[in-house]
Structures are given as C-alpha cells and as structure tokens.
TrEMBL record:
<dbReference type="InterPro" id="IPR018097">
    <property type="entry name" value="EGF_Ca-bd_CS"/>
</dbReference>
<feature type="domain" description="Wall-associated receptor kinase">
    <location>
        <begin position="171"/>
        <end position="224"/>
    </location>
</feature>
<feature type="domain" description="Wall-associated receptor kinase galacturonan-binding">
    <location>
        <begin position="27"/>
        <end position="79"/>
    </location>
</feature>
<keyword id="KW-0418">Kinase</keyword>
<keyword id="KW-0732">Signal</keyword>
<dbReference type="Pfam" id="PF13947">
    <property type="entry name" value="GUB_WAK_bind"/>
</dbReference>
<dbReference type="InterPro" id="IPR013695">
    <property type="entry name" value="WAK"/>
</dbReference>
<dbReference type="GO" id="GO:0030247">
    <property type="term" value="F:polysaccharide binding"/>
</dbReference>
<keyword id="KW-1015">Disulfide bond</keyword>
<dbReference type="InterPro" id="IPR025287">
    <property type="entry name" value="WAK_GUB"/>
</dbReference>
<keyword id="KW-0325">Glycoprotein</keyword>
<dbReference type="GO" id="GO:0005509">
    <property type="term" value="F:calcium ion binding"/>
</dbReference>
<feature type="signal peptide">
    <location>
        <begin position="1"/>
        <end position="16"/>
    </location>
</feature>
<dbReference type="GO" id="GO:0016020">
    <property type="term" value="C:membrane"/>
</dbReference>
<keyword id="KW-0723">Serine/threonine-protein kinase</keyword>
<dbReference type="GO" id="GO:0004674">
    <property type="term" value="F:protein serine/threonine kinase activity"/>
</dbReference>
<keyword id="KW-0808">Transferase</keyword>
Length: 358
C-alpha cells in the first residue's frame, strides 16, 4: 500500500484578495506610472465629465505622461481620501488629491523662454489649490509678490537681497532672496503681481519668480531656492478635488460607500467606509481591508488576528492545521487522522461516509 502524507495549512490556504478595482470596467487604469481611477479616465465613456479626462501621451523623451487638458497640467499622482479615517473625525483636509506640475510665473523683465506670465484659472471645475499641502513662494530682490484674482483677500510676501539682512533667513526662505506664506482655502485661480519693495531702489530690476508648490517639495528644497528656482519651469502642486454633482451612486449598505455633504468648502466628499479601501465612485469599488496582513494591526501575535467584514479582532483563536494520510488504494480520497492546533492534538469528528473530518 502506497501512502502519501499531506500537510494542509488551512490558515494560509486562501490567497490574498486582488486589489480593488479603480478604473471603470473595460477601461485602462494606468498611464505610464500614474494610476487613473474613475471618475478620471482616458477614453470616452471612462471618465465622469471633461474635467476628468486624462490625455495619455508619449513625450519627446519617450516617457509616457498623463495630462489634464481641462487645466493644462501634467498629472503626477491621483489619490482618494484615506479609507481608514474615523467617521467622527473626518476633516476638510481629507479630500481626493491630484499632484500636478504647475508653471512658475516670472516677472516681465525675465529673459526665460519657458512658461512665464500665464496664470491658472480652474473656475467652475472640481479642482482647488490645497491650502493644507501647498505654499506660496517668491524669489527675487527688492521684491513684493502678491496673488491676484482672489479679492477681497490680500496674500503675498516680500524678499530683498540687502547684505545686512540676516543670511540665515535664506535657509528658511523668510525674506532674504526668498519668501513664502500660506495659501488661502477654496481658491481656483492663481496669478501674481510683482512690485518693488523699495520704489527708490528699483533702477535695475532683476528677474523675479512666484509660484505655488507642494509643501513637501518646499521643505526639501528651501535651503537654496534662490539658485535652484531659475532653471526650473514647473514645480509639483497639490490640488484638492471632489465631484459635488456626482449622481451615479445609489447607496446601499452592501456598497460599503459613504458620503459627506457640505462637510468641506467644495461640497460632497465620497469615500470608502471604515475598514474598506478602493474606489468609492464605483459600485463595487470598496472592498474589505485584511488588517491581519498588516504588521501594526495591534494583535500581539499575528496568528491571533481574525479578519472580519469591515473590521478584525485579536481573540486568540487559531486555525487548525490538518494532517491527512492519503491511501491511494482506498476508495476514500483522504483520511484525517487528527487535527493539530499548534501545540495540541485535537480529536476529529468522524463523518459516517467520508472518514474522519475536523
């Protein structure tokens, strides 16, 4: 009689769930290295409206890039709100975001051939400059840079190049050759007016620069912006986005999706419920998170973790490891001799026709 021993590890038997769908069914969800989730899309029928249309094209350097023709900017990344935020603490900062490359605005006396004096106007669209994730920055001497088109607000900063100015200020971009300030919330327009800080000392004006930039980029480059900015044409900026007039969702409990209306300056925010991740703009886009696969799930031992729909617990129950002896000469396919639960051999429940069973 030929006997084969088979070890079945039931705990690890199930395969990891595939990632939740992000693009509409039948639509391309990737442009180069950029994920394109619905309501964004590349081809007709794959995006919510023209504001979310992505143009995926190959540049002169053979790299594939994603562009938003509606705002004329290259897209670096698209993200949804964090699915694990507690409902009671959902804040206006937790919106969908789009990281884009935005042109630097220069003064009229600059000789640069790159993008210069054209501002950005996204009025009427779903995109807003993130006040939480961006900075307004200006570089130049005898410089007063003011944001325009945001009346009645007055936002800007000053910088000069006087030798008596504390040189440490350049490292912090706080007035010597460079200045920065916060960005007001809810704005869709960006343009800049340059003036002289000292009208008596404006005989020979040098080139001045102003732009919005992602806060993380600013902090990693602020020590020497006066020399780093001139060669640049564009910098990364973060846009908040939402779909306030989205009508494709008919919420049910099984959808695992939620909406907060009027909770932000921009209208409704759609997101996956707590314990779920994915795309809340697709009917089956929100899927359960297996917290037991995460190292920081709070369970003392990973084997104690039990994943549940929308949650998990650490109750200490362990999945049994079944040891089977397969007798190829027998009419039964497998006989389970015992059930091993890590440290204990447990009795198995014998079925009437199919041999022992756990």
């Amino acid at each position: 009689m030929r006997v084969t021993f088979l070890l079945l590890l039931i705990y690890g038997l199930s395969e990891a769930a595939p990632p939740p769908p992000m693009a509409k069914p039948g639509c391309t969800g990737l442009c180069g290295n950029v994920s394109i989730p619905y309501p964004f899309g590349i081809t007709a029928g794959c995006y919510f409206n023209d504001w979310f249309h992505i143009n995926c094209s190959t540049g002169n350097d053979s790299s594939v890039r994603a562009f938003l023709p509606s705002i004329k900017m290259e897209v670096l990344e698209i993200k949804f709100p964090d699915p694990n935020n507690d409902d009671d603490s959902f804040s206006s900062f937790e919106l969908g975001i789009v990281r884009v490359k935005m042109p630097i605005i220069t003064s009229s006396n600059c000789t640069s051939t790159g993008p210069s004096n054209g501002g950005v106007n996204m009025t009427g669209g779903p995109f807003y400059f993130s006040s939480y994730r961006n900075k307004f920055i200006s570089v130049g001497c005898n410089n007063m840079a003011l944001m325009t088109g945001i009346d009645p607000m007055l936002v800007g900063c000053n910088s000069d190049c006087n030798s008596e100015t504390n040189i440490d200020k350049e490292a912090n971009c706080s007035g010597f050759k460079c200045c920065q300030t916060t960005v007001p919330s809810g704005i869709q327009v960006f343009n800049v007016s340059f003036k002289s800080k000292d009208e008596k000392n404006n005989g020979i004006e040098k080139c001045k620069y102003a732009f919005l930039a992602e806060e993380e980029w600013f902090y990693s480059n602020m020590t020497n912006l006066s020399s780093e900015v001139p060669p640049l044409e564009r910098v990364p900026v973060v846009l908040d986005w939402t779909v306030s007039n989205f009508t494709d969702i008919n919420f049910t409990k099984a959808d695992r999706r939620k909406v907060r209306r009027g909770s932000t300056d921009y209208g409704a925010v759609y997101y996956c419920g707590y314990g779920y991740e994915g795309n809340p703009y697709l009917k089956t886009g929100c899927q359960d998170i297996n917290e037991c696969e995460k190292d920081n799930n709070g369970c003392l031992n990973k084997s104690d973790c039990m994943n549940m729909e929308g949650s998990y617990n650490c109750d200490g129950r362990k999945t049994r490891t079944k040891i089977a002896i397969i007798d190829r000469s027998s009419s039964t396919s497998a006989w389970l001799l015992g059930c091993h639960d890590h440290h204990f051999l447990l009795p198995c429940d014998y079925g009437p026709q199919h041999g022992p069973r756990a």
